[in-house]
Structures are given as structure tokens and as C-alpha cells.
Amino acid sequence: MSSRLEELDVFRGLAAFFVVLFHLTTRFDELYGHSLAFSFEIGKYGVQWFFLISGFVIFLTLNRTKSALGFITARFSRLFPVYWLAVIVTTTVVNLIGLPGKDFSLTTASLNLTMVPAFFETPAVDGVYWTLEYELIFYCLMLVVWQMKGLQKIEFICMGWLILQLSWLLSEYYTGYFPWKIRLIFMLDYAHLFMAGILFYRLKASAEGDRYNLVRHCLVILCLGMQCWIDNDLVSCGVVLGLFLSFYLFVYNKLSVICLKPLMYLGTISYSLYLFHHNIGFTLLHKLYILGIPSYVAVPLVMLFCIFIASLATRYVEKPALRFLRSQFTLRNHTTAKAV
Questions:
Q1: Is the separation of the CB atoms in 185 and 165 below 8 Å?
Q2: Which UniProt keywords apply (predicted)?
Q3: Which of 24, 28, 21 is nearest to 43 (CA)?
Q4: pLDDT score at 206
């Protein structure tokens, strides 16, 4: 399998763009109201797309990982430096310009730097950051699986995980109770999406004749069924079915047509775009409305501004920090090996 899968970059870019479009149209209208006739409610399913992508990418990464510290360094360098910048910039913009219902103290901003403010019963400085907690939990769980040499038995682990999800749903239905810590630690609300991403990786990485592995396909179908049960919504089930189908097309090499440079560029800046668009975008959009700028002008302007900021953050913070931290890890390992 190629070390760089361009279709995944496109998936990332489209997922981020869909989420941004949902927030600047539908979500902003729900919270503050605007006269924009256009709404993009299905854009919220970009989050589900991200979780599918994470399942695929993290399993791919762990298959190439040589040490736990190497994996931790790679994930830390990818997530935290630009996230810290986003927390600082978002807090500053919201506090200086002002956004109704949002006002963050220094303590709140500081605890957000951990990426898990909910563990400290502290609100996130941006509404989209909740997904990062799930990402971190998933990384930890998968690192445990890797340490236990369970990657090649991942289908059995997925079966057990799905059974745990089923136990949660049945317990909630019949007793109205399930330990919330277990629900959080095992990400029972979204585990099926990460699992599906893992299974798609297994199908993609397997030999041509093994891509019809019945167990893996059945588990993918069960993951989709879990989505339908949890959301209990026909639209949700239909949209996520479309996301699953996009991965199937990718697995069977039918999506090379989407690998266009603008879409791949969106994929390059997708993480920064996700981090910087929400409260910063809302603050700027609210300010433009106060100044009398019509919505059909204000929304595209804010969208372009968010893409511009994400481009700067990716180029001058995210990528340099990633290169520096990973090079330091490589240098340290090389030095230690020579000393030994």
C-alpha cells in the first residue's frame, strides 16, 4: 500500500469543509440567527467521516510503529502544537471582539491546553474540540492493543467492542443506567465508526483475493447497524451509509478521480481549518452582521478567512512543529543507539 493515500487527504478536506459549512450556515442560525437562505445540515456528519478516517489512519500508523514512544511522539507532534495556538487565538479573539454567551477566563483557557478540559469539568473554548478527546482516547486504546500484540487479532477485538456497545444500549433501554466512565473510556457512542475505519484498512491492505473476507464485511455492516440504532434516524443512517460506501470505493481503487489538487490542499490544512473555524468564524460573522454586511457576502468572507488562517497555521506552525519534534525523536534514538 502506498505510504501516501491521496483519497484520504481528499476525505479529510471534504470532511473539514462540510463541518465548516454546517457551522457557518445551520449552526450559526440556530444560535444567533441570520438571513442566509442556504443551510447545510448534513455537514455535521463530517465528524463521523473524521472518525472513520482516524480508524483507518491510526491502524495504518501502528502497523508501521516500532516503539510506543515513537507513536506517542508522532501523535503529539501532529495534534498539540497547532492546537495550543488555536486555543490561544480563539480565546483572544472571542474575548477582544466579543461573542454572545462566550467569555473565557485564563484558567479555562489554560485547562483547555490539556485537550481534555471535560476531565476538569471545564468548558471547551471552542465547541468543536470535544471530538479531540475521543481521538486521544482512541489513540490510547489502540496503543494498548499494539502493546499486547493484538493488531492481527483486531477482528476479534472489534467483535468484543461491538458486544460492549450492545450491552450499553440494552442496559440504557431496560434499566436507564450504564456506568458513564465505561461509556467514555471505550467511546461507546462512536466506537463503531473507528472500528469501521480499522476494518476498511484491513480490507485495503489485504491481498487482492482476501478483500472479500466475509468476517470483515459482516463487521462493517454491524458497525453501520450500530450507527442506525444509536442515532435512530433515517437521515443519519443514510448519510453514514454514503460515507461507508465512499470507503468501499476507496478500498477497491475506484476513487482516483477525486484526487484533485484543490481538494488535496483542503486535506493538507484540514486539521487547522477544523481548529480555527468555529468560534473565530462565529465571532467574525457576528461582527460583520453588526456592521450591516449582508449574509450572502459575510458568510463567504468568513469562510475564505478561515481557510486563509488555516493555511498560515499549517505552513508556519503545524508542519514545522511536526518536523522538529519528530526529528528530535529520531536524533535522540540515533544517539542512544550509538551509545549502546
A1: no
A2: Acyltransferase, Membrane, Transferase, Transmembrane, Transmembrane helix
A3: 21
A4: 79
